[in-house]
């Protein structure tokens, strides 16, 4: 319980200070580790302090000071040691304090604003407040200096002015205040002097990198300038000005000496700014080198960079010194080595690409060295001239100071005599030219560069030898040597090389590591000695194999297989005697080629895919390539074969044959060039187009094609021809691709225009007649005015294509496309009407009510489709109107609109006729298809109720129910009123008049109505012979008879084409149906569709 009370006390202060979350607080006091730490602090007398802090979002308790905290933390510590904390003494024995995560700043603020004001006040008891004030200011100064060092800055510690001002009111304490201010000023002087004495060659400036780079120099001086400017800003602060003013008022000697420090600080700032400006001229080049990756880009940077460095050495007092310029040159050389090393990457001896990377690296270093040496010559010349000039002046002038400006070659007298001696000496010192020669190429300044280049050469030899032996191994694995015994011996040599290379790799881990030069040198010497022994063995094996070779080709193939290794000097020395016999074969091959050339020189070779002149030149070049290949291979694998008299004779024969082939090629080309103007210019002067039978065609004949093909072949990159300058200029003016493109474009335009004119209807031509006339006028200019070499040809082609495609083809296509869509819409009315008539026979027969409902649904669908199609027709007409751009009142547009209206009227007529034919055919046809079932599609119910006969629907319209005749009248009327669907075309009245006047439509309607009327009139049973037809619309009482008798009599008398359902209703029994129909002649579906009744039908 006692422990819990103490923990509650700690929990209360933690909660008040850190304001943790409830879960964090529970985790702190619930965790065994944190709880044990807190209890140990409370119970163990040796534990004096405990920290409670957040770290990574977790609240912790630890007896060791935290290295990093999140935000502020709280510290609990005991006032007295060897005291056990209880709940009675916890308020008196435990103190707590809050600290922020910035320890030094917090300590400085607490010391300055809390402890120093409290402890600097005079207190009874003999306590020396001046001593405490002095000690606290020293502690505060140390804290400020340390805080600045952590931030790589120079922070001048400032005393607490308020405290010192309060203490200065007492006369007996003024001496202590003056002592504190002077101590602070002395500290400032030391800090400023240390900052001004900081140079790049000090440990602070050079320890950043083992091989310092130029950016290190630039960063140092920028940092140095920032430090000086920061010190100047601090010295201008009101607190420091107050300190200096107070010390000057009290005649302190340190205050007067501090002004000298300020002058030194201003001078240092000026010098540093000058150095920074000079370095700023070189900094862009350093950046280009660091970021560059292409070889030519890096090499191009060296010359302007070294020239800028030369100017800086000439005009900068600081970098004119030998130590400074040498240090900067060393840094630049290190940068070049670093970049060259970066290009190589991780250089591996077995990597084939390492050879190219090493050569690039060496090129970069060599380019830098060459640029440096050129710049060094200029610098030495300037330095020699300045030194001699200054020595000459010193000897001639006595008592007079002459100034030789580094900016000018002229000499200017600054003063004379002893009266101006001090000023002249100062100016002489400012403008004195110090002898500062640039270091030689082997100077220690370039030690890293020289070592790196030497190492790259050694590694390059390693890589080359490794790749050559790798080729040998690959060839031996493929039996490249030709004999198994020879292959096995070569494999042994390659294995020995691999062992030597593996031993070298074990000794040297990184071949480009310059810090470990001694292991590399010894390992490389051993490896090189072993390689020479292996090359000697390999040379003896190849010599034996060449002696056994059966012909020159096999021997050359063997040498070609081991191409890389046979170029080694040691191996060529071994093979010299054997390779000398190869020259005999070369001489024979040259004689054979010469004989072939003499025999077929005047004969024409035929290759259909090439033009004649180009074909002849290619044949000559193939002969030249035949001998060049052999000659090149010999010079490559056995260059020593051409030494001696026989070798010189073969060389002469080769050169003589090459001259003859070249002369013949030149003669062939000259003959073609002689007729070039006649063949090319005349053909290009032909017109672009020709007119045949009123149609336009491109005038690009075969002769012109051959000429252009010859030019194309001769100017091809695969067949380079050396043509005269004037011919080259003429050919350059002949754009073959352009001419071919013109041919293609004009052919497409003219063919499209011809097709358009041939396919255009007269009614459509009237709409675009003005555009067609304009296009024909422009194309006619291609027949009469423009030629293939006309400079204005492009404008003509552009205009012609624009007129043909934009003003004609595009418009005509729009007219055709929209008219085609109008036709599709109109045709779809008849197609959809026909599809609606093709009803499923399995649902036949229909009652009149069902068929009436179905007919209404069909009519609604047809009306909706025709209405939608009508809107689309209006839109298509509007689209045509917009492209033709003529007035709606013009005769052309009125005629075209009547043309479209006629198409619409015919489509509506076809739709109506299909519906009428279907109804009529359904009444008169017996079968729609062969083998079908019921042939009637409508059903009339005849009900027998006792002896009474009922018809459903009624035969005539005397009853309230809709009669059979009224049904047919409504269907025919609905079909004829489809004209109302085309209201948007403003053709309703015209359509109605056309429908009324159409004989086929009227005849179908009359025939259909006649059939229905005849059928209705025949619906009279024989049992009531004298009763009129109208009486059958009411129930009829028939004499007693059997069902079969009544059915037979009705069937005999009722000869309608409908299906009769005779129903007899008996009380308490279900109705029974008897379906009867009369037979009609059978018709096929085609006959039914095309059936048009006449008056005889």
From TrEMBL:
Residues spanning the signal sequence: none
GO cellular component: axonemal dynein complex
Pfam family membership, one: DHC_N1
Ranges of Basic and acidic residues composition bias in the record: 1084-1097
InterPro entries per record: DHC (IPR026983), Dynein_heavy_tail (IPR013594)
Domain Dynein heavy chain tail: 179-389, 419-796
UniProt GO BP: microtubule-based movement
Annotated TM spans: none
GO molecular function: dynein intermediate chain binding; dynein light intermediate chain binding
Span list, region Disordered: 1070-1097
UniProt xrefs under PANTHER family: DYNEIN AXONEMAL HEAVY CHAIN 12, MALE FERTILITY FACTOR KL5
Identification of the protein by name: Dynein heavy chain tail domain-containing protein
Species per Swiss-Prot/TrEMBL record: Clytia hemisphaerica
